[in-house]
Design brief:
8-stranded parallel β-sheet; single chain; 9 helices; alpha/beta; about 40% helix; TIM Barrel; 8 strands
């Protein structure tokens, strides 16, 4: 399979000791390109550096996760705008709302989200979106800003949210959550109605290790080389071959991110 991982946190310090080996295993598993997620000032800068060190293979996003919304000062926002214009940056985000953990005040989350949506419009790039337990506010803010070029990253919700995001024009990213028979079984129904040109795959590494990997890895750390398990789970749910899912989602990712 030829696959693209649209969301891997390769700037995470859990990869510091073996990042080159992780990338090599990804290539061996058929991962052709990876979009490295920026979710803070530091991770965005590290994602840019990784993309520059691996041109044509790694790309990056620039954004502030809702957990860090209080850190998005006017000065930081201005710096993000400079970064977002770089050729290595293919989307603004990870940005959005997270009412599940509420690590930042909700008013600060909403403000930071809107500011990043405006930034994306100024630089002419799509948005890499995070939403957890905040669907109504999330969708209202997207509508307020007229956002249609975005991907609902790590989608774990249901048919109501899927349909709302598709109607808004968004793409949907599916992770190893679909491989979790405890929490993700509903996604097997959800993915059937996502049009092929709106569906993309991601690991969200080092998080969300697929639970059905055999033999089970000794470490719980996820990495891009495990994306084929996500592709196979999506394919089984859609009644398609893994190769067809890989080809379609890769084509969609290349078009969306301009890879």
């Amino acid at each position: 399979m030829d696959l693209i991982d649209i969301g891997a946190n390769l700037a995470h310090d859990s990869f510091d000791d073996d990042r080159d080996a992780v990338l090599a295993r990804g290539r061996a598993a058929g991962i052709r390109q990876i979009v490295v997620t920026g979710s803070s000032v530091e991770s965005t800068q590290r994602a840019i550096a990784l993309a520059r060190s691996n041109p044509g293979e790694l790309f990056a996003t620039a954004g502030m996760h809702p957990h860090h919304a209080m850190d998005l000062t006017p000065e930081v926002l201005a710096a993000f705008e400079v970064s977002a214009k770089l050729p290595e940056i293919r989307a603004v985000g990870e940005c959005g709302l997270d009412y599940f953990r509420d690590l930042s005040p909700r008013d600060a989350q909403r403000r930071a989200f809107g500011q990043q949506l405006e930034l994306a419009q100024r630089v002419g790039k799509p948005v890499f979106l995070h939403q957890r337990e905040a669907h109504d506010d999330f969708l209202a803010i997207l509508k307020e800003h007229g956002v249609t070029r975005g991907v609902a990253h790590c989608f774990t919700a249901g048919e109501r949210e899927r349909d709302a995001y598709l109607e808004q024009g968004l793409h949907i990213g599916i992770t190893g959550w679909i491989n979790d028979e405890r929490r993700g079984r509903h996604l097997r129904e959800v993915v059937r109605a996502i049009p092929a040109d709106r569906l993309m795959l991601e690991t969200d590494a080092p998080y969300l290790l697929p639970r059905d990997i055999e033999p089970a890895p000794k470490s719980r750390r996820n990495e891009p080389s495990y994306l084929p398990w996500v592709a196979r789970a999506v394919a089984a749910a859609r009644g398609e071959t893994p190769e067809d899912v890989a080809a379609a989602t890769a084509a969609t990712a290349r078009a969306f991110f301009g890879l």
